[in-house]
Amino acid sequence: xxxxxxxxxxxxxxxxxxxxxxxxxxxxxxxxxxxxxxxxxxxxxxxxxxxxxxxxxxxxxxxxxxxxxxxxxxxxxxxxxxxxxxxxxxxxxxxxxxxxxxxxxxxxxxxxxxxxxxxxxxxxxxxxxxxxxxxxxxxxxxxxxxxxxxxxxxxxxxxxxxxxxxxxxxxxxxxxxxxxxxxxxxxxxxxxxxxxxxxxxxxxxxxxxxxxxxxxxxxxxxxxxxxxxxxxxxxxxxxxxxxxxxxxxxxxxxxxxxxxxxxxxxxxxxxxxxxxxxxxxxxxxxxxxxxxxxxxxxxxxxxxxxxxxxxxxxxxxxxxxxxxxxxxxxxxxxxxxxxxxxxxxxxxxxxxxxxxxxxxxxxxxxxxxxxxxxxxxxxxxxxxxxxxxxxxxxxxxxxxxxxxxxxxxxxxxxxxxxxxxxxxxxxxxxxxxxxxxxxxxxxxxxxxxxxxxxxxxxxxxxxxxxxxxxxxxxxxxxxxxxxxxxxx
Length: 488
What we know:
By secondary structure, the protein is α+β, with helices and mostly antiparallel strands. The protein folds into three domains: 2-47, no CATH class; 58-208 and 414-486, no CATH class; 219-399, no CATH class. It is built from 15 helices and 19 strands. The strands form five sheets. Strands 6, 7, 8, 16, 17 and 18 form a six-stranded antiparallel sheet that branches. A five-stranded antiparallel sheet has the order 13-12-15-9-14. A four-stranded antiparallel sheet has the order 1-2-3-4. Strand 7 (247-251) and strand 8 (254-255) form a beta hairpin. Helix 3 (58-65) packs across helix 5 and helix 9 runs antiparallel to helix 12 (385-391). The protein is elongated. It is found in: Endomembrane system. It comes from Dimorphilus gyrociliatus. Keywords: Membrane, Transmembrane, Transmembrane helix. Its EC number is 3.4.24.85.
């Protein structure tokens, strides 16, 4: 339902925008003013696309491109070497992906993963994704522009665009100046965008590594995980559930010091049977409110509590006289789960007091999870552990003061992670010799540089066409595979 509404709003927005543009361009009453407006602003509207083009940054590009020319020459030459190395890595990875798919081997991680907001990107992270994608694209094009000025290629202008929901950037270079350059100078320009994306990835990785030290004045780590957001309507939301800022220290008997341990504890509750609790016989006798006439089987488990009971849960246990068929008792869930945990009856042995290992009577996918946090009494979660996992957004950083914002480390980490993945993807994809990507022009310059002394232009063009076709098919096949994996 949400996806259908999103698609309807998306199509409606672009339809209204495009039709409004057509009307304003053809209407006699508004045509003159509107055409003058889009000419001055540099805006242009197409089907599912809007563009902004300007020459206002040309002077800045000229200033950067003329700064320390010898340094920039070395800088962009290093970019050529690194980009060519990445070309072999990218082609190898994309080829292995196809080979593994044909061999029907499991593919855990896609090299190319189409990003669909709301499908494989949480809705609360769409803003981070779009902003990071725009920044990575702008820095990519800045690399081309500065390298072009360094090689005395004229820049006509710079622009931004939104294609459907994806933002991007482009730089308009003089084709005549580019083609008159030597192949090595062309390579410095063509590889500059990829090189800047690689540098951006390195900077983001370094930032992620030193972030705990940067934030150590305001946040502590490795003591608990902090709730930064909660899905509305989930089982742990509401006044009696968890709150933003709560510090979770354990799930059942599993200690939680960081997000990695949180994930491990969730996996542990999935793989193991429900945790039992050591309960004295007197406790069962005093608090059991089950009645034999309401004992019934539901979804493979026995339910012995009435539907009106919201604080009690049905537990099973064995006694010396009932070693095969268990007994059932409807006990207060909180008082029972506060006791010592057990897996076997022997874990509850006491010489002078009979104790039983009582286990919640639940189906195979449901667990009773005791969430210990710092503000109030432990929270009891009854449901599938993955529902708990997806209901919360957590952070490794615990604020040292109530005045320190809880969300800041999460925001910084999320942006850094998107920079690493998106800028890395742009670098890895653009070096492939594929039609309309940087790799197409990189390939052309390489063939001119290496083969021009040995082969005629027609032969070099034939080799270029074959390799370009291979690279285009390679990228297209991986995109098809990635789409198939995403929606199956």
